[in-house]
Amino acid sequence: MTFDADLDFAPWRLSGVVYGTLLNDPEALALLGQQVNQPPYKAPPQAPVLYLKPRNTLAGEGSIVLAPNPTTPVRIGASLGIIIGTTACRVPEAAALEVVAGYAVVNDVCLPHDNFYRPSLRFNARDGFCPIGPRRRAEDVSDPDALPVRTYVDDVLVHDTSTAGLRRPLRRLIADVTAFMTMHAGDLLLLGVRAGAPLVLPSASRTRVEIAGIGALSNRLGVEECAA
Amino acid sequence: MTRLARVAHAGAIHTAYPHADGVQLADGRVLAETAVTWLPPFEPGTIIALGLNYADHVKELARELTLSAKDEPLVFLKGPGTLLGHRGCTRRPADVTFMHYECELAVVIGRPARKVKAARALDHVAGYTVCNDYAFRDYLENWYRPNLRVKNRDGATALGPWLVSADEIVDPHALELATYVNGQRLQQGNTSHMINSIPALIEYLSDFMTLLPGDVILTGTPDGVVNVTSGDEVVCEIAGVGRLHNTVVDDDTFRLHEHRHSDKGAVA
Fold first, then answer.
1. What residue of A is the nearest CA neighbor of B47?
2. A69, A89, A137, A202: which sits with the fewest CB atoms below 10 Å from its CB?
3. Separation between Cα atoms, residue A37 and residue A33, nearest integer Å
């Protein structure tokens, strides 16, 4: 992990605990169509669908993201990371911003998968699959639910989206997550990757995810076998 | 050959060892088992849990599952907030109708493991402890199942009492497991019946993620999971590893009342 030196103390210092949020984009859920009512899902998700990015995934600016082989793409997943600033337990939506210390640019990488029945560690939890970039204090970000989010591959804009219009906007997500599990200072909660996030073959050399008002995170691409 | 615990006593956290009269702290003090507050016996890194890793438990759940024998291991992760020590209390929320224990052998990694083959996998194990990995099935949804609302609730994954060094366990796949509720044995199994063995799990996991010292693998539970209710004393026992006590409490016993967050006065 890289750290902004002036944010490397509580409450902005990261604990290393990172929770991701799946299907927070209405478009991503809509793309599944009637599948959501059929086995194995049988119903659309009710509570937030969460997963962990364990410590082996954590990386930083300039780190190399390794595909398992040259023909498997990686999903470059720009996401706003919400830095929790205090112990957060059963936080009401109206008070949710009080537990936010700041925000981070996160590249939530995974291997593409279209079945969400099982937690998919093999796709989500690979070494180096969660680069974390620049951070900003909460008071320096005026509306976290309206931030442009852009992804570039080799300096070409390939995904142009924002943090707006999610199934659970930031406050609601914090309320619904802390309703059943306590979060702590330095924990990161990812707002979620938008539909259409690029699948990039490792023949590309560089990705950059940008969240306006927070910063940009660049990563290189490679292939596991060649990385020794 | 060591057995270590972490306990809180008289305002500090201590390493503790087994003693005929309870536990002995590193400084020599001997205390009754109930005179200390037990913490998880080590500070876990990544917490990896297995679902459906005993053939009999798979059969038990088969009616409701979409499952095939060729599926890869069902692994999921937990966060640190769900951990609890020996003799802890686990809350049973008022709206839950089916909460069950799961007695599991917990395998603690001692050396980094990256693309380790099964034949060498046990070289990377520091030791073992007992886990009670509660599930709250009312909250089950079929998205990244088992979802975190079922499996990652505060204080619902007990570990302990002891971290038993690997050299004390001759064969981790020849251990009797049992769960007792109020003294009655309701769950029984043997680690020889795991579908994916510990070496196989370490090979599978370390192929895509580097395992680090302190990471722990909760290896799944056999059949016999039964609903527990407030006041139940639940003891998960693995022969040679330990007896892990837990008490199920309801919201009133837990002294949980709905407070508005702003009433706490602690938020800046």
1. A54
2. A69
3. 9
Class of domain A5-34+45-226: alpha beta
Q: Which of A115, A121, A189 to mutate to test the interface with B (most CBs of B within 10 A)?
A: A121
* Mutation for testing the A interface, residue in B136, B148, B151, B262 having most A CBs under 10 Å: B148
Instruction: Kindly give the pairing relationship between strand B184-190 and strand B176-181.
Output: antiparallel
Among residues A45, A44, A42, the alpha carbon closest in space to that of A21 is found at A45
Q: Which residues of A touch B144 (CB under 8 A)?
A: 22, 49-51, 116-120
What class, spelled out in words, does domain B1-39 have in CATH?
mainly beta
Residue with tokens 């210092």: A13
Q: Give me the residues paired with residue A206 across strands.
A: A220
A69 touches B at CB < 8 Å: no
Question: Which among A180, A183, A189, A190 is the top mutation candidate for probing chain B, defined by the most B β-carbons within 10 Å of its own β-carbon?
Answer: A180
CA distance A119 to A52: 9
Query: What does the pLDDT read at residue B163?
Result: 98
- Report which of residues B65 and B221 the model is more confident about: B221
Average pLDDT by stretches of 10, chain A with 228 residues: 65 92 97 95 96 97 97 98 97 98 98 93 97 96 97 98 98 97 97 98 96 97 76
Instruction: State the alpha helices, DSSP H only, in chain B.
Output: 55-61, 118-121, 148-151, 198-206
Q: Which two tokens stand for residue A59?
A: 């990386």
Could A118 and B144 be called an inter-chain contact, meaning their C-beta atoms sit closer than 8 Å?
A: yes
Give the neighbor-by-neighbor strand order of the sheet with B242-249.
B88-91, B242-249, B233-238, B176-181, B184-190
Pair A23, A120: CB distance under 8 Å: no
Model confidence pLDDT, tens digit, residues B75-115: 999 999 999 999 999 999 999 999 999 999 999 999 999 99
Rounded distance, CA A14 to CA B39, Å? 23
Q: Are A148 and A211 in contact (CB under 8 A)?
A: yes
Q: Are the beta carbons of A153 and A200 closer than 8 angstroms?
A: yes
CB atoms within 10 A of CB B26: 10
Please identify among residues 35-54 of chain B the ones whose CB lies closer than 8 Å to any CB of chain A: 45-46, 48
User: Yes or no: is domain B40-254 CATH 3.40.50.720?
Assistant: no
A40 and chain B in contact, CB less than 8 A:
yes
A180 touches chain B (CB under 8 A): yes
Cβ contacts of A120 on chain B, cutoff 8 Å: 144
Q: Does B123 touch chain A if contact means CB atoms closer than 8 Å? A: no
Q: Determine the 3-state secondary structure of B93 from DSSP.
A: coil
Tokens of A148: 């442009």
List pLDDT tens digits, range A16-33.
Answer: 999 999 999 999 999 999
Specify whether the CB–CB gap between B41 and B163 falls below 8 A: yes
